[in-house]
Amino acid sequence: MRRVAWLLPLFLACGEDPLPVDMPGMCEAAGACQGMDSCGAGPSNFKEVVFCTNCPYKPDTHVCEACACRQLPAGEGANLVAAMAVPAKATGAKSFTLTSVYPVMADGTRVTCARLMGADRAFLVANPALAVGNSNHVAVPGGSADPTLAYMVRLYDYPGQDHLLFVQVASDTQGKGTILAKGCAEGLDVVNGVDQNVAVTLE
């Protein structure tokens, strides 16, 4: 996050979210990026999660934040361990999708839980401007979600500050089918080698 921290004051005004920086020419300079598909190896850096139709795409080696590519530190990271209960409307669900999201998009705008919770599938799933650290699907323990039980699942993430963990509950296995519930936690500081317990409220 240190590489982009100096950019944020340029876009902050009166305590509001940063303004987009993809104004004419802003992200067209040499070395600038407009999404994960223009970092690292290019389009192959923007990877679909195999079999998971509701998982946001993830990077291979780099993310794009405020027009700048940042290489993810290979071999460094920790688990985000999410504890949650499913609401009654998600009874019988087969899987969770788990996604770590970084707080600054390619265009410099801020990502919040409110923004993720209110977003449509086009924004969440195949959006190279969203700076995703990792994305995966996890089977519901026991095979079928029960609202009387508590669940604990984990996702590996790279070190950094102010990350978000976005969770969806899918009706089918491998993150497929209908999204029955979702939840989010924000302000997560990930430290190399230190797993972090995260409480997620699904709604």
Approximately how much beta-strand content do the residues carry?
Answer: 25-35%
Helix content: under 10%
Q: Reading side by side through the largest sheet, how are the strands ordered?
A: 7-6-9-10
Query: Over the alpha carbons, how many angstroms does the gyration radius reach?
Result: 17 Å
Biggest beta sheet summary: 4 strands, antiparallel
Low-pLDDT parts are 1-24
The overall pLDDT, averaged over residues, is: 89
Shape: globular
One letter per element, helices H and strands E, the order comes to HHEEEEEEHHEEEEE
Number of strands: 11
Number of helical segments with 4 or more residues: 4
What is the first-to-last residue Cα distance?
30 Å
Task: Tell me what you see in this structure.
The protein is 8% helix and 33% strand. By secondary structure, the protein is mostly beta strands. The chain has a 4-stranded antiparallel sheet with strand order 7-6-9-10. Strands 8-5-11 form a 3-stranded mixed sheet, with no helix packed on it. The longest helix has 5 residues, at 113-117. It is globular. Mean pLDDT is 89; it is low at 1-24.
What's the structural blueprint in terms of helices and strands?
Elements: H1 2-5, H2 8-11, E1 46-47, E2 58-59, E3 62-65, E4 68-71, E5 78-84, E6 95-101, H3 113-117, H4 121-124, E7 132-139, E8 151-157, E9 160-170, E10 179-190, E11 196-199
Parallel strand pairs: 5-11
Antiparallel strand pairs: 1-2, 3-4, 5-8, 6-7, 6-9, 9-10
State the main characteristics.
33% strand, disordered N terminus, three-stranded mixed beta sheet, 203 residues, four-stranded antiparallel beta sheet
